[in-house]
Write a structure and sequence with these properties.
six-stranded mixed β-sheet; alpha+beta; Nuclear Transport Factor 2, Chain: A; 3 helices; single chain
Length: 120
C-alpha cells in the first residue's frame, strides 16, 4: 500500500461521513471496524453507521490539515490531524481531531480496521 492509497481511503472516509454515504462507508470499513472516540468510548461499526444514519452524529465538514504515515509496512497506518465540524449527540463544534487509522487489504483495495480519535 502506498502513502497515496492510504490517504485516498482516508479522504473517501471523510467525504462519506459528511455526505452520510453509508454505502461508501460500508465499502471502506472492515467488518470488525471500531471507532474509539476522544472520550475513550469504543463504538462498533454498526453502531457508528446507525448513529450517522439517524443523524445522532452529523459531520458537516472535515478538513485534513496534516497526515503522517506509520513505518510498519505490515500494518499500514495513517495519523491525520483534522478540523471536524460535527454535531455529536446534540453538541455542535469544530473539533481539532487526530484520527489514527489502521488498514488491511480486502479484494483489490484496502479497508480501515480501526480508528482512534483524540484532540490536538
Amino acid at each position: 500500500m502506498t502513502a497515496e492509497e492510504i490517504e485516498a481511503v482516508h479522504e473517501v472516509m471523510c467525504e462519506a461521513m459528511v455526505a452520510r454515504d453509508l454505502a461508501e462507508l460500508d465499502v471502506i470499513l472492515a467488518d470488525g471496524f471500531t471507532l474509539t472516540h476522544m472520550t475513550g468510548y469504543v463504538q462498533s461499526r454498526s453502531e457508528w453507521l446507525e448513529a450517522i444514519e439517524t443523524g445522532e452524529m452529523q459531520y458537516h465538514r472535515m478538513e485534513t490539515v496534516q497526515a503522517n504515515h506509520g513505518t510498519d509496512l505490515t500494518m499500514p497506518e495513517l495519523t491525520a490531524k483534522t478540523l471536524t465540524d460535527a454535531t455529536i449527540w446534540g453538541s455542535r463544534a469544530t473539533w481539532r481531531l487526530t484520527l489514527r487509522s489502521w488498514f488491511e487489504p480486502r479484494g483489490d483495495g484496502w479497508v480501515i480496521t480501526r480508528t482512534v480519535a483524540s484532540t490536538w
